[in-house]
TrEMBL record:
This is Reverse transcriptase. The lineage of its organism: Eukaryota, Viridiplantae, Streptophyta, Embryophyta, Tracheophyta. It comes from the Eukaryota. It comes from Sesamum radiatum.
Length: 131
């Protein structure tokens, strides 16, 4: 616990950011006892969480990915484009809009998370449908 406390103090000092305990949570492995888990909750006041979780709009999980983990990203893409679907944008304007939506979305994280092919196909269909 003392190592974690020192790490968080160093993080606060270096980053200048405060840690909001009411928004913070922690995840433990199977080998961690309920007694240890309860000790962390008691000392830090953080809530216990379980995988999969969403952090900054991106799913964090262990093991093979499934399409449902990426539903929030797909919904966000759909919502971003849906508002523009009925406007009279030119083909070039639509292309510029798709590029800006892509830049606003954490697509680089899709490369790291290795989503199933079905997710990539769905994203491609959303963009193709916009044209």
């Amino acid at each position: 616990m003392e190592l974690l406390r020192e790490f968080l103090r160093a993080y606060k000092r270096v980053s200048g950011q405060l840690i909001n305990g009411s928004k913070s949570s922690f995840i433990v492995g199977r080998q961690v006892s309920s007694l240890q888990t309860q000790a962390v909750q008691d000392v830090w006041g953080y809530q216990l969480n379980h995988l999969p979780v969403t952090y900054l709009g991106v799913p964090l999980y262990k093991g093979n990915s499934t399409a449902c983990l990426f539903d929030s990203i797909i919904s966000r893409l759909r919502d971003m484009l849906q508002g523009w679907a009925m406007t009279n944008l030119s083909h070039g304007g639509r292309l510029v809009l798709i590029r800006s939506v892509l830049q606003a979305t954490s697509l680089h994280l899709l490369q790291v998370n290795h989503p199933p092919k079905s997710v990539l196909i769905t994203i491609e269909r959303i963009f193709n449908g916009f044209f």
